[in-house]
Design a protein that fits this description.
about 200 residues, about 75% helix, mainly alpha, elongated
């Protein structure tokens, strides 16, 4: 039922772009949670640029949900909430990748930002955390996990994160499959690190 209501709202938004305030408000009320969940997930950490980026993404919530509604394709049989979650994730990652202060952020800094927390930083040194991360990935039953982390976060000659397309090609997996495996491993590593503090 929610899916059909979402589709009806989205159709009205697409048809009346200049006068769709009520429909957009309803869509935003229904789906702000998933959008904010993604923003919080992908902008967590102690780096100052992440706080600024998070504020900007929260302030642009209605606009980003509106843009997602315009891009939504109901023929793909995906719920709008799922589509919006993926859109929000990509918005966060793209915003981070384009951030001017990101140029000063090395691949290892980016990895550390994923696990940054005051409690963790009080308990373990950055080197200890990195050693633990790579030890966990190396011990994984799935050999691709270590390769993903090694390729993604090893400093390149331009000192940038290796693109997901390059990482996925090197392990012979789709980009989305690679990201999913990466994110699943991140969750496991966070659990292990939480036990250390």
């Amino acid at each position: 039922m929610y899916r059909n209501n979402d589709i009806n709202l989205i159709k009205k938004i697409k048809k009346n772009k200049s006068s769709c305030d009520l429909e957009l408000k309803e869509l935003v009320n229904r789906h702000s949670g998933i959008y904010l969940e993604m923003v919080n997930k992908y902008t967590s950490g102690s780096a100052e640029n992440l706080h600024s980026m998070k504020d900007d993404l929260i302030n642009d919530k209605e606009y980003n949900i509106y843009k997602a509604a315009l891009r939504y394709d109901e023929s793909r049989k995906v719920k709008f909430s799922t589509f919006l979650g993926n859109e929000a994730r990509w918005i966060c990652l793209n915003t981070f990748n384009r951030s001017p202060s990101r140029k000063e952020c090395t691949p290892l800094d980016a990895l550390m930002n994923t696990f940054a927390s005051e409690d963790l930083e009080k308990s373990l040194t950055q080197k200890d955390i990195l050693d633990k991360i790579f030890s966990i990935t190396k011990q994984s039953k799935d050999e691709r996990v270590y390769k993903i982390f090694k390729i993604r976060y090893q400093p390149s000659n331009k000192n940038k994160l290796t693109p997901w397309s390059t990482v996925s090609e090197s392990i012979n997996l789709s980009i989305q499959g690679t990201i999913n495996l990466h994110n699943k491993t991140i969750s496991s590593i966070k659990e292990v690190l939480q036990k250390e503090i």
